[in-house]
Every structure is written in structure tokens, then in C-alpha cells.
Specification:
The complex is a heterodimer of chains A (360) and B (254). With 360 residues, chain A is an alpha/beta fold. In chain A, 43% of the residues lie in helices and 19% in strands. Chain A has two domains: 193 residues, Rossmann fold (3-Layer(aba) Sandwich), CATH 3.40.50; 111 residues, Rossmann fold (3-Layer(aba) Sandwich), CATH 3.40.50.920. Chain B has a single domain, classed as Rossmann fold, CATH 3.40.50.970. In chain B, 37% of the residues lie in helices and 18% in strands. Classes of the chains: A alpha/beta (360), B alpha/beta (254). Strand 9 of chain A pairs parallel with strand 2 of chain B, so a sheet runs across the interface. The complex binds thiamine diphosphate, iron/sulfur cluster and magnesium ion.
Chain lengths: 360, 254
Amino acid sequence: MAEEVVLMKGNEAIAHAAIRYGVDGYFGYPITPQSEVLETLAEQKPWETTGMVVVQAESELAAINMVYGGAGTGKMVMTSSSSPGVSLKQEGISYLAGAELPCLIVNVMRGGPGLGTIQPSQADYFQTVKGGGHGDYRLIALAPASVQEMADFVGLAFDLAFKYRNPAILLADGVIGQMMEKVVLPEQRKRLTDEEVIARCPWAANGKTAGRKPNIITSLELDPAIMEQRNNHLQKKYAEIEANEVRYEEINCEDAEYLMVAFGSCARIAQKAMELARAEGIKVGLLRPITIWPFPSKAIAERAKQVKGILTVELNAGQMIEDVRLAVECKVPTEHFGRLGGIVPDPDEVVSALKEKLVK
Amino acid sequence: MTREEIIKPENLVYKKPTLMNDNPMHYCPGCSHGVVHKLIAEVIEEMGMENKAVGVSPVGCAVFAYNYLDIDWEEAAHGRAPALATAIKRLWPSRLVFTYQGDGDLACIGTAETIHALNRGENITIIFINNAIYGMTGGQMAPTTLVGMKTATCPYGRDVTIHGYPLKMTEIAASLEGTAYVTRQSVHSVPAIRKAKKAIRKAFENSMNGKGSNLVEIVSTCNSGWKMTPEASNKWMEENMFPFYQLGDLKDKE
Ligand SMILES: Cc1ncc(C[n+]2csc(CCOP(=O)(O)OP(=O)(O)O)c2C)c(N)n1
Ligand code: SF4
Ligand SMILES: [Mg+2]
């Protein structure tokens, strides 16, 4: 059978992919530029087909805590929002990480701070990879750069979340959420039965069937000695994820004398800028982190050995650049180019920045 | 000698529900929490729902409720228990899902989650322990603290010009279309305990029969927070709490 190619927005792709991947529950609250996720689900009525539960919550706080409740029972649950809403979710995200619950959070970023703007931004990088909520925790963070990846990463994020019992996040932005592209959606899978959920998640609290001991989902531990052990256990898990799950894409890096590092929509702009620069004879390559945590530090450090300079291209004032600088240990000049407040740069601007800051 | 040898069946007049384990309780002697835990355990057992019950514990003195009742539990962030319960029940409709929350948890930080879960008619039960104070954090003012009542953060008594009025969440709940059964009970005497147990049973049964959401408020004492003996607390509750928080069913959609 030929693959079914459809044209849709990134936000719509998230919704369709969730239904097809057999997600059990979606809990959300409207906010631009991601409202199409909930709207598409409402229109598709998956509760009549796959049995997926869809709830419009009273707030992002409620939505993320519904995710916590559902994830604690072992079901595949998710939420989506945009920057101000994701700030509200931080409490729940910290609890999810603390209780080691697998789930998916989607952030279709817009410009901040505050109510900011509904235009695209990547200014929630720090919030996503450095914390956001309280405590020492990490989120498995995937940065889609196309509508296809919006669809593909839903399943990937859930696979990783369940593999490590850890929340995963898709960090997209208004460009990826709103733009329409061709996409091949995943095959429709069956949702797991309750029995399959119980077998997959023997730790989950869904009624202590078969006379097992009670399961308790909590992040609380008042004994500091035990709490330290729990933290050490989390850190061990994070180290394992860092060792196994780094994902990135390199384009034209073999002969590169300069390197651009960009994720999400900026990687698309940087790729075009790379073509323009190469046409002018500047040998520049592009490294696109697909996981922004775990960060492809080793790959960047490796490329740093051959290049004269690195430019990060971000829709923010310079956030990922900190991780790039840490990766290369300041051995290579590393500069930042970014536009703020919802402005998306032209590839020409990126080329000019590359020349001005590095090629000279 | 084992317990079985000491207590002969013919002499047994009172028994701990089997769902209640032997973990030492952290509640202060005289506190209402322990009595309500026991009632919940009894009702779950009598309904035969031991393997189908999922409780959601709050942030408050009952945060460790999961240590005492041998069912599955999720521990929620402060005030968010009804959101957790919403998802649990929607994803597992055959389960008996309830939250157990204090007045600070339910009527202050979790007001939105509580009202909306009730108003959506989620098939859950909310057990609401109203002791008019923040017990766990050391006796600060709660949304339900009575006018004139002294707490750590209103040491001169609740003054409506500064602190506003005590909130009657149960009355609000009764006005919501989504609620099936809304009642206010107490556990200060044997007859009261029997009535409270009946109320919990009705609420749990409603939630299993798809009737909508249920709220059982238990007007409670916090003898530590109130700085009174358990006995004096009960008396103070009868004289001061009951006139304002009147006991009885507020709504019963048969
Ligand atoms: C977000 C957040 N804010 C504040 C607290 C501190 N805190 C813990 S319990 C509590 C109040 C509990 O009072 P109540 O819900 O009435 O329960 P009680 O202890 O009286 O049973 C507060 C404010 C917290 N744990 N989390
Ligand atoms: S502080 Fe109050 S509510 Fe908490 S256990 Fe003691 S008496 Fe009970
Ligand atoms: Mg209280």
C-alpha cells in the first residue's frame, strides 16, 4: 500500500499522531499558537474510535495534574500548551519527574517574558533543559524541526518516557506548530488494554489487582537519607539517558571550517543560510540537536576540533549557546545570533551574522 | 501470645478493618483524620472494592494517608487532587476513585480544581476534612477559619476587614449541576460516626453508579492547631463550628 501523504499544520500532526499512537488521554487548555491540538482532537472524537480520553481542563495547572493522575495509573497521557501555560505546568512537571512518571508535554513556544506575544520564539530553552520547576530533575527533551517530526516524535517521546519512567517534552515553536507541510502519519495502533497496561507498568496505581501489595505514587520522602538515595537514583537514570539517547543531525559538516548549531525552526533557517554561505565559498556546516537534553555535547566538541568558529542561531537572547560553550570548553570562538520577541530572521541575516561575527 | 489467642472470637466487639495496616499513625491523638480513615477502610471493604480503589492523598496532615490504608494511592500536589482523580476515573471507569483533602487543600489552593471537577460531574468522591485550620504547617489561618478564631497567622482572631469571610465550599458544591450527593458530617460521637460512614458509603456508591460527583465534608477538630485537649476540641467544635457549618445533607440527587 502506498504511503498516505497529507498536508497539515504541526499542531494538527501532534493530535493525529497521538490518536494513531494509541495515546490514552489528552488534557489541555487553549492557548495560541497551539490550540489546534485540542481543537483537532475534539473534531476527531477519538473517544468514539480508539477510546482515547480528551479533557479540556480548567487551567494548565489542572491539565498537568490530570496528566500526573493518569500517568500514575500507567496509561499513556499527554498535554500541550505554549510558554505562559507551560510556566503554570512547572509544578506538575517537577512532581512528575520526582514520582518518575512517563508522560508527554508539548510546548509550542511563543515570545515572552510575561504574556509576551503569540509569535514564535525559542526562549523557553532554559526552562526546558535547566529545570523550570523545583528540584534536581531532567526532562527528555526533543526539538522537532518539521511537521513530520511533530508527528514522529510523539511516539518516540512516549517510547523514551516509558523506557526510563521519566516525563518527556517536545519543544516546538510557533513556526513548527503553525506551518503546513506534507506529513506521513504513523499507522493506527490499538491502545493497550487495561491488562496490558498493568503488565507494562507493575508500579502503577490502578487498583491492587491480583492481591499484590499496594502501589503508591509519590515524590514525598521526609527521611533525608532515603531522599538522597532517591535523588542519586534519579541522577543515575539521567546519566544513563545521557549515555544512550543523544540524537542530532549533521549536514555538510565533513569539510566545514565553520559550524552553525541550531534546533527546531532555527535549524531550517540555518540550513538555508548554510546553502547561501556555501554558494559564496564559506565552508559552513550545520549541527542540529534533536535532543536538547540530553545535549549532543560530545558531537559538538568533536566538530569543534576542525572548525574556526561556531555560531548558534536561536530565537532568543542566547540560551543554547551556554551548552555549546560548555561542550567546547571555550576552545573555539562561539558566537550567538538571535532575534527576539517573535521575529523570525531571514537566512540572509544569518549569513551576515556569520560573516560579521566569525568569518570577518 | 498472639493477638488471636488473646482475643477470643466470642469476645470480639470491635475490629480494625483489614485494609488498615499496623503502621504507626502520625496523627495527633484525638485528631479526626484517623477516624475518617477507618470509615473509608470499612466502606471500601464492605463494598468489596479493595482491589478496585484508588485514593488520592492531599498535601496537608493527611499527606501520608497512603501509609495506613492498603489500597493503591497517588499523592497529589497541594490542592490538585481532584485533577488527578478526574484523569484516574476517566481512564479507569471501573475503579472507585476518591480524594481526601483538607480545607486549605480543597477550599484555598485547590478551589479551581475542586469546583471544576465537581461541576464536570466526575464520578468521584471528595472527602473534605474541614478543621478550620492548616494543621500540617502549624496552625495558620484557613479559608474556613471562623470569624474571631485565633490562628498563627491571625493571632488576634480572624478579622473580616483584613482576612475576609470563611468560605462554605460545601454550599457552593451543592449549587453545582455536576454534583450528585453533597453532605456535611462529623465524627465527634458514635452516632455521628455512624452517620458519616453511611454518607461515605452513599457517595462511593454514587460514584460507581455514574451519578456524578460527591462531596462529603467532615467538620473536624485539630486539637494541636486549636491548642485544646481532644475533649475540649470536640466541645468547641459543637459550640462554634456546627452553628456555622450546619450538619446534614445539602443535596441528594436520588
Ligand atoms: C504549593 C504549596 N504551598 C504550600 C505548601 C505548604 N502546606 C503544606 S500543608 C498546607 C496546609 C494544609 O492545610 P489543610 O489542607 O487544611 O490540611 P490539614 O493539615 O489541616 O489537614 C500548606 C499550606 C505546600 N506543601 N505546597
Ligand atoms: S495537626 Fe491537627 S489535623 Fe494534623 S494530625 Fe494534629 S490534630 Fe490532626
Ligand atoms: Mg485543615
